[in-house]
Design goal:
The chain is α/β, with parallel strands linked by helices. It has two domains: 12-230, Rossmann fold, CATH 3.40.50; 235-297, Alpha-Beta Plaits (2-Layer Sandwich). Helices cover 36% and strands 25% of the residues. The strands form three sheets. Strands 5-6-7-3-8-9 form a six-stranded mixed β-sheet, with helices on both faces. A four-stranded antiparallel β-sheet has the order 11-12-10-13, with helices on one face. Strand 6, helix 6 (175-190) and strand 7 form a beta-alpha-beta unit.
Amino acid sequence: MDGHTDDEAPLVQGKALVKRFGEFEAVKGIDLEVRRGEAFGFLGPNGAGKSSTMRMIACVSPRSDGDLTVLGMDPERDGPRIRARMGVVPQQDNLDNELTVRQNLQVYGRYFGLSRAHTRQKAVELMEFAQLSERADDEVEPLSGGMKRRLTIARSLVNDPELLLLDEPTTGLDPQARHLLWDRLFRLKSRGVTLIITTHYMDEAEQLCDRLVVMDGGRIAAEGSPSELIRRYSTREVLELRFAPGEQAGVADSVRNLADRIEVLPDRILLYTAEGESALEQVHARGLRPVSSLVRRSTLEDVFLKLTGRTLVE
């Protein structure tokens, strides 16, 4: 035994977890531990291995190597028992467009062997939760992207899961729809549902995740809370400077000693420093005239850039 009581035992635990597709190794021996009641994130660009890891946890893709337990069980032996206590929100909405909002929820409830009376009641609750009550008897086809996403999440809750997996939950949504979805996820977490989220949006990871791993090329590059990762791998502030096209390369050397480190991106130079404003004053004192400048706090995007030398969305 590892000294965990049942309540403390990780809800998901992976050790040296590997996923291969033929010769290609999508997940290269990662360790992870998700605790009950937390929102845990996989942050990384497309192709980092996030979805492959999610599919192993969701018991729809067997691991190639390593150990994995989900809800204290082995996905290969106990897949159906695990899936009965889990909700999955896939990257692409797979709703039935010909059915109404209400029917989508009720039909899905029947897959779990829930009674008609129970699914009827549950559908009413979930439509309210997803703010879709007024669209209950409308077909799904004409709904907005944000509504479809909320319905997909509502549907994944029909069996009252303890664990909810969300793969890129807000890709393609406008800012308003994203914030509404984040609010719904906060509510679920406050009810004690454990969330596992993959995303390539650093603001989403910062907003939603108590703890996260940064994934790149099938490996975990770092792990911690958003604020810990920023403290560990970045500075308090970042000064962004944009110069006229063609000027940038020449300027980089003359500002290098104004910051702890600098990053030269195609369209701007980033200066990492505890005091962005005073760095900007020194830039001006050297007679440099950026087209625009911005002082901001460090984000997970900066952490990713430091760890990998690339931006999250390329």
